[in-house]
Design brief:
The chain is 44% helix and 14% strand. It has helices spanning 11-43, 49-61, 69-87, 92-113, 116-125, 127-144, 149-163, 228-248, 278-298, 316-330, 342-349, 391-394, 406-421, 443-455, 471-475, 494-501, 532-544, 564-571, 579-594, 623-632, 658-665, and strands spanning 199-202, 205-208, 216-221, 249-252, 255-258, 261-264, 270-274, 304-309, 362-371, 377-386, 459-465, 487-489, 514-517, 520-524, 552-558, 605-606, 609-613, 618-620, 643-645. The chain is elongated and about 100 Å long. 39% of the residues are buried. Mean pLDDT is 73; it is low at 1-10, 167-225 and 402-441. It starts with 10 loop residues before the first helix and ends with a helix. The strands form 7 sheets. It has a 6-stranded mixed β-sheet, with helices on both faces. By secondary structure, it is of the alpha+beta class.
């Protein structure tokens, strides 16, 4: 069965699609007077600097050098930069339209008024010069624009998979009930079949077509590196700028052609006069309009597919809301332009944690913001927020422990709880299986689609909630203050344990509430999620799989406030002011001691993933405030509603570590 997605076009998308067409028409119309201006400036007397150098190189190479070679060098490199637009998945539509404008202009002006095109085609198609000069220089241009061999290999692979390969049997498995339809106002109405989700370009922004799976979210983000569209704009700007000067100014350059090459002009540079020819007067305003349209075409948002995966209730929603708040403080961002983030963002700003996302709830989240000073870039973060615990099924292909389905996941839970029950006498025989509600009926269908997102991601964020690993913190007596009333030793009396855990005499003490570290045991009431040793093993197997050898991994350690007090006691400084040292502390003094999955000798990495702790400053809510609020409203958040986020430090982001994480994502 093919898994599809239905997206409805919003008013904003219709406007952006309209402007895409407008900019394409502008490019096609404005390119004609620009080419006329270039030709005029090239032929005008006295010759400009570039033409003098061009003729001098020809004179130097005669009779062995083809007279078309010097021009072919520049043209080939520029064409390579323009071709890079076609390699870039996210700007391919704009690239095609740009090439059509170039062909239109070259047909109307360069072919009819000059022999340049014929001369270049003759050179490029010759067996000797075409292979030895033109083709390598086109590749040089593509390389300068940021295209690498892996991009070309990826393009070839996509073409092969699209037209020649058999569909992936895994994607879209799970019955013949028809496609899953999810309506979001984020793009044109398109049905995308299995095996993979595709990216499309609309206007000057990109959309991801996504099927949500509990515990997984999809993000797109732009890098800071050189990219083909931006390089094309900059080079075109320089060429048009120089051509405008040539068309407006008559001057004698300091370099002149000579019979055997080039020579310095004795008088040096000499300005002669300004030229107000109709060709230049038409070409200069046309250039301004053309460059504006080209900038809109090449305004770059995203080049990386970044997917974040993690167990249920690991703080992913709160992390994303915190990133939004940080971007509001540090970048040009209008909260009203963001989509799907208002509720969790509003909760954070009110000092509350976002409510947990149900297994059948789906929220599309999008954040747009601007970076850069002179040449502004639009960055788009996109994600789908949802709840549940299908992480193990999503990663089934790389897991080595078992064939994964919901029954197996439930068995894993039972095994883990049985193991814990053997260590204590007061645990009740509660049902350890996952809740197999209606939300899981589509699990087989959507797990394959999300796995495709993982397979085709450039960057994968692995989420590790620190509340699964804070045994060493408790053993050293360094928990945050608000945990004092929420954690109890397993050696305490049963009545005391039940009192701290706030459960009745007949209620069961869940086995996953137990924390065990070097023989010491505690109880801490928290939501059930995948067993930590399980998902850490899955992360390692994912990183070790050959198909992810070139994928960039990073680890987001959420709820890192658990380690802040211990770090301060050990180092005499705050985690916020000494973030690099705090990162190392979290992995060496907490994670490495709590589990054998972390290498203390290479503390900056987990496998190949570098890690980035993020946390909120959390405190207990005053009892009076807590009681008054519960008299007037029905709070949706059952786990943490007696805690609040401290937002009193105006100069520190609400989500500590978010600036560093954003810098890493944009790297």
């Amino acid at each position: 069965m093919g898994v599809g997605i239905t997206l409805s076009m919003s008013d904003r998308e219709q406007k952006e699609l309209f402007w895409l067409v407008v900019y394409a028409v502008v490019l096609a119309l404005m390119v004609l007077p620009i080419f006329e201006m270039i030709v005029w400036g090239w032929n005008d007397q006295p010759w400009g600097l570039v033409r003098e150098i061009h003729q001098g190189v020809i004179n130097f190479g005669q009779p062995y050098l083809n007279r078309n070679v010097p021009l072919a060098v520049g043209i080939s490199i520029y064409l390579g930069i323009a071709l890079a637009m076609l390699v870039d998945t996210y700007k391919r539509v704009q690239g095609v339209l740009f090439w059509l404008a170039l062909l239109f202009g070259s047909t109307e002006v360069l072919i009819e008024q000059t022999g340049l095109v014929d001369r270049f085609v003759e050179l490029a198609t010759s067996a000797s010069w075409g292979l030895v000069l033109v083709a390598p220089l086109v590749l040089v241009g593509m390389f300068v624009a940021g295209v690498r061999s892996d991009h070309l290999e990826s393009l070839v692979s996509k073409v092969k998979s699209q037209f020649f390969d058999e569909p992936d049997e895994r994607a879209g498995s799970g019955g013949d009930d028809g496609p899953i339809e999810i309506n979001h106002s984020v793009g044109p109405r398109i049905q995308i079949p299995a095996p993979r989700l595709e990216w499309i370009t609309v206007g000057d922004r990109r959309l991801i077509l996504d099927i949500p799976v509990p515990g997984v979210r999809w993000i797109t983000i732009s890098p800071v590196r050189v990219n083909p569209p931006r390089m094309l704009f900059v080079v075109t700007l320089l060429i048009i700028g120089y051509s405008a000067v040539e068309a407006l100014v008559a001057y004698h350059p300091w370099l002149l052609r000579a019979p055997n090459g080039l020579t310095w002009r004795a008088a040096g540079f000499e300005f002669e006069r300004l030229i107000f020819h109709n060709t230049a007067l038409r070409g200069i305003p046309a250039s301004a309009v053309f460059l504006f349209a080209l900038y809109k075409f090449t305004s770059y948002e995203s080049t990386r597919n970044v997917i974040q995966i993690g167990p249920a209730r690991s703080g992913k929603t709160a992390e994303f809301a915190g990133l939004h708040i940080t971007l509001e403080d540090t970048h040009e961002l209008d909260p009203a332009e963001s989509e799907g983030i208002s509720v969790p963002r509003g909760r954070i700003l009110d000092g509350k944690f976002p409510p947990s996302t149900g297994n059948e709830e789906i929220t599309f989240i999008e954040i747009e913001y601007m970076v850069g000073e002179l040449l502004r870039e639009k960055v788009t973060l996109q994600t789908v927020d949802y709840g549940g615990a299908l992480l193990g099924e999503v990663l089934a292909e790389v897991r080595e422990d078992s064939e994964t389905d919901l029954v197996t996941e439930a068995t894993n839970w039972r095994d883990a709880e049985r193991e814990l029950k053997e260590t204590t006498e007061i645990l009740a025989d509660d049902d350890a299986s996952l809740d197999l509600d209606e939300g899981y009926d589509v699990s087989d269908k959507i797990a394959g689609a999300i796995w495709d997102c993982v397979r085709h991601a450039d960057r994968i964020v692995l989420t590790v909630p620190l509340d699964d690993f804070f045994g060493p913190i408790l053993a050293k007596g360094n928990p945050p203050e608000y945990l004092d009333s929420r954690v109890v030793s397993a050696d305490a009396s049963e009545d005391e344990i039940r009192n701290v855990l706030d459960i009745g005499e007949n209620e069961q003490i869940k086995s996953h509430w137990m924390i065990d570290h070097e023989g010491e045991r505690w109880y801490y009431k928290k939501e059930r999620r995948d067993v930590p040793q399980d998902y850490l093993t899955w992360y390692e197997q994912l990183q070790g799989d050959d198909q992810f050898a070139s994928t960039d991994f990073l680890l987001s350690i959420t709820k890192a406030d658990y380690a802040v007090e211990g770090f301060k006691n050990k180092n005499g400084t705050t985690a916020w002011s000494n973030y690099p040292q705090f990162r190392n502390y979290v992995v060496t003094d907490v994670l490495a001691e709590a589990t054998g999955h972390f290498d203390t000798e290479n503390s900056g990495f987990y496998g190949t993933a570098d890690f980035w702790p993020v946390w909120y400053k959390v405190e207990e809510r005053p009892e009076i405030e807590y009681e008054e609020e519960h008299e007037t409203e029905d709070d949706e958040d059952e786990e943490d509603d007696d805690l609040r986020i401290d937002l009193s430090d105006d100069n520190i982001p609400a989500l500590r570590g978010s600036k560093k994480l954003l810098e890493r994502l944009q790297r």
